[in-house]
Amino acid sequence: MTHRDHKSVVIVGGGQAGLSVSYYLCKEGLDHVVLERHKKFHSWRNNRWDTFCLVTPNWQCRLPDFPYQGSDPHGFMVKDEITDYLDAFAESFAPPVVENCTVTKISKRPGGGYLIDSSQGNYSSDQVVIATGGYDNPIVPPYADKLDPSITQMHSVEYRRPEQMPEGATLVVGTGQSGVQLMEDLHLAGRDVHLAVGPAPRAPRMYRGRDSTDWLYEMGHYAITIDQHPNPEHAVTKTNHYMTGRDGGHEIDLRKFAREGVSLYGSVSGMDGKTIQFLPDLEANLDDADESYVGIRDAIDAHIKDNNIDAPHEPAFEKVWRPEQEITAIDCEKEGITSVLWAIGFRPDYSWIEVDVFDARGRPVYERGVCQEDGFYFVGLGWLNTWGSGRFLGINEDSRHLADQISAKAKSALQVAS
């Protein structure tokens, strides 16, 4: 029989979500272990580009009993400052983390609880928390294999700086938060940049004297739970609004970048040799992003009016550029494109979890992180409860809720046993 160390709780994932749950379990005195595949906060430290910074203001960093206490609450921490903040949080309570430990299988234990197999020994536990996030497998479409091998392909998780890209132009694919920031990173470095524009929405940065996220927080937008959301399926699956915290923070209007020389196309639809095809949806995607942008401004305007707030006025939004035609195919050689940078997201990998906690599409099923399988939980995912659930803003509330559930179950089991 395989020897197993028993812990009341096993947490898989040593990022901010897993360690936030660990923080509260430590306060409760509940024995547990955190199993981390790499080092603590690996993704923040190793999977970000050099100029990476927060998109939301520093004041939203609210880890358990460890809020941001720096001198720039309305600024945006850069990568090293983020990891310093996270390391300081971990040092504040010394979580029981086993690093470089890959969990290879989780299954139900006969009679109750769970069996956890890992690269550094095996465990049994009464309860399990999955805190691995949703960034396991970088998404690259199958037709990428048809692109001529002379053209370098890279995913955003590998990108660090413009000098990594070969001489010549780069096509950035995707306009979520990462895509637009990588486009800007290359553009500011003087590189020739092409951008495939997807359907991601955009948001204002500063509006009527304040950061738009400050207004939205004041308006209660971030307190809306997934159960209260008018369209929960859309909320869970839609791409985040794009803007940036770079150089003090600013909004990103792709039309302005087009005027500065960035070549814009619609969504990529295929590749063949040195030819790349696009859908004729560039103008529609730009218009949809602007509609989201204006909608946020309008909501802030209404809030200001309804509450008689004294705030400076802003000029009406104007579209400064529009495509003269929809380009549906380009020749990379003719355009001088020598590289493609994929920024279309990630998929989680739950293949190692042999517990019935997923729907037909492989997505975890839970209510505020609590699964129907007794003692099984998820944390750190977007819209676990609110918009902030997958971010620094909401992780304290979510981790405390799960820790309360875990602690109550552990105490109940002790009472039954006695």
Automatic annotation (TrEMBL):
GO terms, molecular function: flavin adenine dinucleotide binding; monooxygenase activity
PANTHER family: FLAVIN-BINDING MONOOXYGENASE-LIKE PROTEIN (AFU_ORTHOLOGUE AFUA_4G09220) (PTHR43539), FLAVIN-CONTAINING MONOOXYGENASE (PTHR43539:SF78)
Organism from which the protein derives: Actibacterium atlanticum
Official protein name in the record: FAD dependent oxidoreductase
Pfam families, alphabetized: Pyr_redox_3 (PF13738)
Keywords, in A-Z order: Oxidoreductase
NCBIfam families, sorted: MSMEG_0569_nitr (TIGR04046)
SUPFAM superfamilies (UniProt xref): FAD/NAD(P)-binding domain
